[in-house]
Amino acid sequence: MDLIKCAETAKKASIVLASAKTELKNKALELIAEYLGNNINDIVQANEEDIKRSREENLPEPLLKRLRFDKKKIMDTVEGIRSLIKLPDPVGKKLMATQLDEGLVLYKISCPIGVIGIIFESRPDALVQISTLCLKSGNAVLLKGGREAANTNRILAGLIQKATTEAGIHPGWIHLLETREDVQQMLKLDNYIDLIIPRGSNEFVRYIMENSRIPVLGHADGICHCYVDSEADTGMAVDIVNDSKTQYVAVCNATETLLVHSGIAGRFLPELKKRLDESNVEIRGCERTREIISCVPATEEDWKTEYLDYILAVKIVDSVDEAIEHINTYGSGHTDAIITENRENAEKFMELVDSGNVFWNCSTRFSDGFRYGFGAEVGISTNKIHARGPVGLDGLTIYKYKLIGKGHIVADYAEHRRSFTHIPLPPE
């Protein structure tokens, strides 16, 4: 594969796609949903081949869980596409309007970013989510999936390209890359690629950030916390922490560290342990935790670890301030939750915890583009510029300024013949 040629084609396609009408994009999305639904058996067969090979190569169990793309996941993905169709088009929105002077009006208009390079591992459903979000937001995309999902990714990318070409979308808008060499070359293509979104290990994401001039959006780790405050409802706290940890362990928004106020620890931890034992969760506790329940000793490294497995680190703290300090020291800025009936403590936690997603009395697993109503997501961003949290449609757009005048020239203002009014106007 000539990657430069692919990137050039994607760049040209992105210009055409940027002006595509909403009806055309939605028609293409509907055809993608139909193609996936009509080819379930072929997709599952390709996925089973990937799983068989990956087991033989001793792929870790959490990654095997991410790799599986069975009929239920396919139908969930199809449902996600149909939800995406119902969402407003993020392109062409008037974000701001200002009358600079009579007859001279400035508009801030949302527009696609351009060409997006996405590097991800294991999850074939990510390929569908990412590509459909890019399509709806008018972006061309270069996709590099993990070798472990090669067969599944190949059939999915082929079906998506076939469906969108049939709908009338430029076929060069999507390209599937398959080798490590492609990744190395992609990082150098800043003339063609406008944004890279990596989804992988901490080391991998940092490598991407340090080896490309292309802007990078994403997160390295998902070290998420639940903090059970002294005024938490014990039953609610057990349910929320259990869901945050066990509902699906191999994802970035699963809780990895639990902080418990010393005032409730004696009542709460035994009840939580009973529930977590049912799922065979290994608890790694601080010294004070081990005085209350039997568990493995925690080390300093546990507070910094994203397990993606049935392991939970537990630490007892003496105040909401100590919990906040711990999270801001060891957390990854992803998702953190407080469980409490005390509004003042909750508001303090949500204000001071420096994360893209902060929750009160609900599971960290809600941190997700589909659950937020974004039509899935291309990933979670812990960046503090452009986009933060689940990156959905709006996170895949930028903006441009459009100025419309009637023969206005700067000399009139520089020489004080005219003055600016700068009157805000309704955006729509």
What does this structure look like?
With 428 residues, the protein is α/β, with parallel strands linked by helices. It folds into 2 domains: 3-91 and 111-218 and 383-396, Aldehyde Dehydrogenase, Chain A, domain 1, CATH 3.40.605; 224-366, Aldehyde Dehydrogenase, Chain A, domain 2, CATH 3.40.309.10. Helices cover 42% and strands 20% of the residues. The protein is built from 15 helices and 17 strands. The chain has helices at residues 3-18, 22-38, 40-56, 61-67, 71-86, 124-136, 150-167, 180-186, 202-210, 234-246, 262-277, 287-290, 320-330, 343-352, 410-414; strands at 94-101, 104-112, 115-119, 140-144, 174-177, 195-198, 224-228, 255-261, 282-285, 296-297, 311-317, 335-339, 357-360, 379-381, 389-391, 397-404, 423-425. The strands form 4 sheets. Strands 10-9-11-8-7-12-13 form a 7-stranded parallel β-sheet, with helices on both faces. The chain has a 4-stranded antiparallel β-sheet with strand order 16-2-1-17, with no helix packed on it. It has a 4-stranded parallel β-sheet with strand order 5-4-3-6, with helices on both faces. Helix 3 packs antiparallel against helix 7 (150-167). It is globular, with a radius of gyration of 24 Å. The mean pLDDT is 93.
